[in-house]
Each structure stands twice: as structure tokens, then as C-alpha cells.
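User: I'll paste a sequence; please echo it back and then give the predicted structure.

Assistant: Echoing your sequence first, then the prediction.
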Amino acid sequence: MNTAVDIAGVVLKNPVMTASGTFGSGMEFSDMVDLNRLGAVVTKGVANVPWEGNPTPRVTEVASGMLNAIGLQNPGVDVFMERDLPFLEKYDTKVIVNVCGHTVEEYTETVMKLNDSSADMYEINVSCPNVKQGALAFGQDPKILEETVRAVKDAAKKPVIIKLSPNVTSISDMAAAAEAGGADAISLINTLIGMKIDINRRSFVLANKTGGLSGPAVKPVAVRMVYDAAHAVKIPVIGMGGIASAEDALEFILAGARAVSVGTMNFSEPLTTIKVIEGIEAYMERYGVEDVNELVGAVG
């Protein structure tokens, strides 16, 4: 039985990885989760310099999910390379570094610093606010997205995954723009923009007013967007958004995802990734599937 998948020439032992921002760099989870079992660890977002993030409160629970407005707080790429990468090098898993930035130059500077590191791939978070475009996210305009991807690809020595924002009119257009810019793969969805109000205090729950909605609540939207994106491009698609079980992961795979990422559920059940891997293997045995790649996009 083969569970290996190929993402732009990088072979993962199975199609299950972590979602950026929900697993750190694995350090906090390594006592509970065998990182060697994972297809890949996707790190928390890394920028060219340290980011402080947003003021608190910046996380709250909602029905079937959570809102977060962390603001991509991170120690910067230099600390990441000195502290986090050496830790991950001890494990037999692929390492995908999530990269964030406010300008194209910030993305490319981070990527160039990482080029000679042990990282296997980059995942570029284009949901960051583009300070040169009035805070419009890079991933919300096809032309800007294509230009950004091309600039990052020119700077990168490793395969580039573009993590798409769902807060757009047409996810198919954005997927096509990423492919046109030279992306080696795309991943989706990032969080949906949401809001929660405290009716007793008559104020916003989050200091930022809005936050990113993730968790089981977004899964039907995410599956639909993965299906649309997979039919718009020829490059590999990585699906995420509310995966809590192997059944959820298999929906994404059948919709066209070659790999999947588990995110929010890591907070409430740290062993979710392992359970998803084991569940996919059990499904393959039950239905006599010899190669997991046979399932990718099988719903047509």
C-alpha cells in the first residue's frame, strides 16, 4: 500500500501535514506527536524581521471553530534558522516554511535567507496585508498575486507553495494567477474573515475587531474551494480547513487535494494528525486502494 505523494518533486511519506500557525515548529507537540509519522511539518509564519503581532485579546472560541487575530507574531527568520530548523532536522519528515511579509521585498528577503537552509519547500502566505496597496492582501488581486509569485519564484531555490485566501470573489481566478506566476503548488484555504461581539459589554471580543475563522465551521466552504481550484490548475493542490478526522481529509483528497493540512484541531486534540494518517490507511485497506494517489480528484 503506497501512501506517498509528490508535491513539486518533494516526496512526502503520506499526504498529512500540519497547518501553519497551529503547530509552531513542532517543539510544543513533540512529546505528544511522533513527528516522524507526519508527511510534513508546516511551520508558523516567518518574516524577514520579528513581528509583534496584534494587541490582546486576539483569540476566541465560536460555534464549531475559533477566531484568531494573532497578527502573525514571530521572532523573525534569523532566530527561526538558529533555533527551529536545527530541531526539525532531527526528524524524518519534510519541512515546509511558511513565509509572511508586508511587501514583495520582505517575502523575497526571507526566502533568500532560507535558500541554503535545510527547508524542503516554502509556503507563501499571501493573506498578509500589502502595505503598498492600502492593506489589500496580496492574494485578493489576481494581477498583484501573479507578480508577487513571480518575484518569489525568481528568488527561491526551493519549490514554492502559494497559500490562497478564501476572501475573494473567485478562488479559481486566484489559483490560475498563482499558477501563471510560476507557483509549484497551491494550498487553501486560509481563514475566513469573521467577527464576534460581546452583547453584554457591547464591544468587540477581539481587540482587532475581526479575526480569521477556522475549524469545522469552515470545512464545507474549504472543500468547495479546493474542488474549484483543483479544476482550475494543473499544479498540486493542498487542502485544509476544518479537518478533524480521516473522513474530513478524504473529502479534500477526493475533491482534488494531493495532500492535506490539519490546523485548528491540533489545539483541542494534538493527536489529530496521527489519527488522520491511520484513518486514511484504514480506508485504503477497507476499499482495496493500493495507492493513495488513485483517490486524488476521484469525484470528477
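Residues 272-287 form the longest helix (16 residues). Residues 38 and 193 are 29 Å apart (CA to CA).
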